[in-house]
Amino acid sequence: MAGHSKWANIQHRKGRQDEKRGKVWTRIIREITVAARAGGGDLATNPRLRLAVDRAKGANMPADRVKYNIDKATGNQEGVNYEEIRYEGYGIGGAAIVVDTMTDNKVRTVAEVRHAFSKHGGNMGTEGSVVFQFKHCGQLIFAPGTSEEKIMEVALEAGAEDVIAGEDGSIEVLTAYPDFEVVRDALEAAGLTPEVAEVTMRAENPIELTGEDAARMQKLLDVLEELDDTQNIFHNAEIDSSAL
């Protein structure tokens, strides 16, 4: 997203996540479950599980609940088997949307995702139709007023790929996926705490939406976000803050 609305979009997204803590916890538990089953319950050797546990801490999930779900995923207890499925599509103005889901019933999930797209002005795409417009990477975003010089010095020394200053004063640090934790830890050790720190699918070519188009796009994203099986949504729409 371009600099003038990046910070407004970030604050809007965080506010909505805070309002839906129960759903956030459900998503994190699913991620912990899948990560632990795939790579084991040892945080030292399972980077995906480490990131999921970090998200759990950030969402104030109790440690005993985190441990219970890791133990459940790696033990012999019977539980739900989730399948990871990615859906791609187009939103308002041709904006690219990627919806990552975890589901125990993919027939139900694909029907719900397709219905959300078609009912709210979007179109479901085929596999690979839009994902090429995104980069899988680590992303750290700092609030306006944070020292760009200090961030750049620490981040690049730790192995970051790029440091981008936004027009609104926010600062974005990009890393390769394997380097995310090292760069994040180096920045935090230097007293630089990011507002956002995550492994994400970053849009390469943002599309600006204003007015009615921005509002319609936000509605489509909200509906997709509300689906029970949705884990993450990535898009390249730069939504005008006045429509939020």
Provide the descriptors you would attach to this structure in a database record.
Alpha-Beta Plaits; four-stranded antiparallel sheet; alpha+beta; Arc Repressor Mutant, subunit A; 3 domains; 10 strands; 244 residues
Count of individual domains: 3
Spatial gap, N to C terminus:
15 Å
Radius of gyration: 18 Å
Unreliably modeled segments:
none
CATH topology group of the largest domain:
Alpha-Beta Plaits
Mean pLDDT: 89
Characterize the main sheet: 4 strands, antiparallel
In terms of structural class, how would the helical and strand content be classed? alpha+beta
Query: Quick one: how many beta strands?
Result: 10
Write down the secondary-structure element order: HHHHEEHEEHEEHEEHEE
Kindly state the percentage of residues in helix.
40-55%
Tell me, what is the CATH class of the largest domain? Answer: Alpha Beta
Overall morphology:
globular
**Order of strands side by side in the largest beta sheet?**
3-1-2-9
Taken as a percent bin, the fraction of beta residues is: 15-25%
By CATH's scheme, which homologous superfamily of the largest domain applies? YebC, transcriptional regulation domain
Would you identify the CATH architecture of the largest domain? 2-Layer Sandwich
- SS element count, helices: 8
